[in-house]
TrEMBL record:
<keyword id="KW-0677">Repeat</keyword>
<dbReference type="InterPro" id="IPR017938">
    <property type="entry name" value="Riboflavin_synthase-like_b-brl"/>
</dbReference>
<dbReference type="InterPro" id="IPR026017">
    <property type="entry name" value="Lumazine-bd_dom"/>
</dbReference>
<protein>
    <recommendedName>
        <fullName>Riboflavin synthase</fullName>
        <ecNumber>2.5.1.9</ecNumber>
    </recommendedName>
</protein>
<feature type="domain" description="Lumazine-binding">
    <location>
        <begin position="98"/>
        <end position="194"/>
    </location>
</feature>
<feature type="repeat" description="Lumazine-binding">
    <location>
        <begin position="1"/>
        <end position="97"/>
    </location>
</feature>
<feature type="repeat" description="Lumazine-binding">
    <location>
        <begin position="98"/>
        <end position="194"/>
    </location>
</feature>
<dbReference type="InterPro" id="IPR023366">
    <property type="entry name" value="ATP_synth_asu-like_sf"/>
</dbReference>
<feature type="domain" description="Lumazine-binding">
    <location>
        <begin position="1"/>
        <end position="97"/>
    </location>
</feature>
<dbReference type="Pfam" id="PF00677">
    <property type="entry name" value="Lum_binding"/>
</dbReference>
<dbReference type="InterPro" id="IPR001783">
    <property type="entry name" value="Lumazine-bd"/>
</dbReference>
Length: 213
């Protein structure tokens, strides 16, 4: 489990392609490697990955084909930077919202509006996921817990503060680039539950109507 509060952006030193997976070598900061062990979970751009090896501050992660396809990790090359968060510990302050590290889909960067007064990002996503994205709701973007801005039928806006841009890789985004999306789990459960109840009620109404005929 994670909080969506990115602790640092770290550099991908090397990517080794193997049968059915890729091994990522990421240079973590000394603070992030303290107490870290093989088998621990670390979020990379919001994707929960397992530590497979450690060489001083270089941490290795094996990433399977399915994860490479669903997330933007498949687009990374050596020299890129990823958002890093260690897994949640008992007693840790939760400043964002609970994230699982399981990416649902990717969003396309439609537009970036950057002035001295604001930094706004317009993201497009498949319509089926928009049922779970609400104005002022929570969403995970590359592992960052963020608040949703304006919403359309197939897109939404993010309004970022300087601190978020400073500590994450979101300031590196380009138009037509992609970000990892994790839908807020509580929102998804509520929406799906309401949809099931409404479908059941409609089916019951239809049955009663047929019986009346």
């Amino acid at each position: 489990m994670f909080t969506g509060i990115v602790q640092a952006t770290c550099k991908v030193i090397n990517i080794e392609t193997k049968a059915g997976l890729k091994t990522f070598e990421v240079a973590l900061t000394p603070e992030l490697t303290e107490g870290l062990v093989v088998g621990a979970s670390v979020a990379n751009n919001g994707v929960c990955l397992t530590v497979t090896q450690m060489r001083d501050n270089i941490v290795l992660f094996d990433v399977m084909e399915e994860t490479l396809t669903v997330s933007n990790l498949g687009d990374l090359v050596a020299g890129d930077w990823v958002n890093i968060e260690r897994s949640l510990k008992y007693g840790t302050e939760i400043g964002g919202h609970i994230l699982s590290g399981h990416i649902h889909t990717q969003a396309n960067v439609i537009e970036i509006s950057h002035t001295d007064q604001h930094y706004n990002i317009h993201l497009g996503v498949e319509k089926k996921w928009m049922d779970y994205i609400f104005y002022k709701g929570f969403i995970g973007i590359n592992g960052c817990s963020l608040t949703v801005g304006e919403v359309t039928k197939d897109s939404f806006w993010l309004h970022l503060i300087p601190e978020t841009l400073h500590i994450t890789n979101l300031s590196d985004l380009k138009v037509n680039g992609h970000v990892n999306i994790e839908i807020d789990s509580q929102t998804q459960v509520i929406v799906d539950t309401v949809a099931k109840i409404m479908a059941k009620q409609q089916a019951q109404t239809l049955d009663l109507s047929k019986q009346a005929d």
